[in-house]
């Protein structure tokens, strides 16, 4: 039987999903809440995220990650600097037919992500603890995503060896304008998409980029 707190979390998530215009079935919504509750529990001991209020986590973590979904294509995804699993675990929960690899150099965070993958039964997700610069290029990804990882140019540079020739980067940013001059010459920014995330006042944008020089 859900308690009042759980009911409020469900209501906030359900409302936000409707505002985003997404279609998410009730089992998936429950899994998102289960993930959030695991995060709340582990955060008390391991300090995984500075956002501690579960209601705030709905907007800052779940809805912020969900807002990206309509702009992504199916494929092999890598979430670089995933921290406590954002946005990678949200993608894996909502898109069970996509493969999602989550990567972080902090073993405390990847330990949590591993536990969440097991407890949530996410057969399409895997986690690795490594610095992205040290990951060998034997496996390429059709999509590489990050949130709050590093400046745009650095993100593209340090993940370039893992990107498939026809793949795309997706950087979740505030206002990216100042970072655009730092984009490497062998990468092209295709689109900057402003997002409205329910419950967040701050500007949110997606920067979509691809390998290759402009106009090639
Ligand atoms: C600010 S946190 C963002 C976490 C998560 N993406 C989010 O939005 O909540 C940045 C994460 O990047 C990881 N990180 C920093 N440098 C890294 C590197 N070179 N390779 C892999 N992970 C790295 C850190 O350990 C940290 O967990």
From TrEMBL:
Pfam families: GidB (PF02527). InterPro entries: rRNA_ssu_MeTfrase_G, SAM-dependent_MTases_sf. Gene3D superfamilies: Vaccinia Virus protein VP39. GO terms for cellular component: cytosol. GO terms for molecular function: rRNA (guanine-N7-)-methyltransferase activity. It is found in: Cytoplasm. It is an enzyme of class 2 (transferase). SUPFAM superfamilies: S-adenosyl-L-methionine-dependent methyltransferases. Keywords: Cytoplasm, Methyltransferase, rRNA processing, S-adenosyl-L-methionine, Transferase. It catalyses: guanosine(527) in 16S rRNA + S-adenosyl-L-methionine = N(7)-methylguanosine(527) in 16S rRNA + S-adenosyl-L-homocysteine. Specifically methylates the N7 position of guanine in position 527 of 16S rRNA. Belongs to the methyltransferase superfamily. RNA methyltransferase RsmG family. This is Ribosomal RNA small subunit methyltransferase G. The lineage of its organism: Bacteria, Pseudomonadati, Pseudomonadota, Betaproteobacteria, Nitrosomonadales.
